[in-house]
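wait is this the right file?? whatever heres the structure
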């Protein structure tokens, strides 16, 4: 009966499950030993595994944040926002049979200004102004995206 996944170390919801809900690895009947985790390197992007933008990441680029909901960026709707250690990316995949990807990116060193703007008297809305680009979405996504951009720019300037 395993309490932790032998591959990723995630806590298992039940001792008798056969596959890990986090990484999908088959669970062996013997318990997890923490010293085994040190032998197997964990990818830097493992915190945000199965990202759809992985194919667009450069070598040594790490995705640090992904929005939960969809954003309205410029004139386009239903884009997901991502922050890496090099850039801010907005991505969407459209189509049922014939898929087409849309990717907008802004390198961190090209971000001159970013600010949160709150509008309205009673029904307040919030958007993020990134250079000249207006980004709308759920309030929590906007705030978290703003914080992630701040953190990435701070680390880039160190």
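ok assuming it is, sequence goes like this
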């Amino acid at each position: 009966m395993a309490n932790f996944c032998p591959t990723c170390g995630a806590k298992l919801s039940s001792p008798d499950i056969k596959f890990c809900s986090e990484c999908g690895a088959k669970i062996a009947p013997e318990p997890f030993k923490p010293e085994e985790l040190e032998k197997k390197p964990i990818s830097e992007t493992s915190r945000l595994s199965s990202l759809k933008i992985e194919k667009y990441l450069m070598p040594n680029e790490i995705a640090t944040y992904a929005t939960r909901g969809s954003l309205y960026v410029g004139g386009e709707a239903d884009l997901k926002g991502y922050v890496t250690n090099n850039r801010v990316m907005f991505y969407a995949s459209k189509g049922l049979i014939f898929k087409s990807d849309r990717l907008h990116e802004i390198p961190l060193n090209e971000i001159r200004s970013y600010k949160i703007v709150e509008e309205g008297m009673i029904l307040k809305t919030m958007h993020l102004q990134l250079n000249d680009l207006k980004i709308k979405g759920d309030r929590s996504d906007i705030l978290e995206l703003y914080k992630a951009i701040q953190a990435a720019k701070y680390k880039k300037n160190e």
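The longest strand covers residues 76-84. so i think its the right one actually
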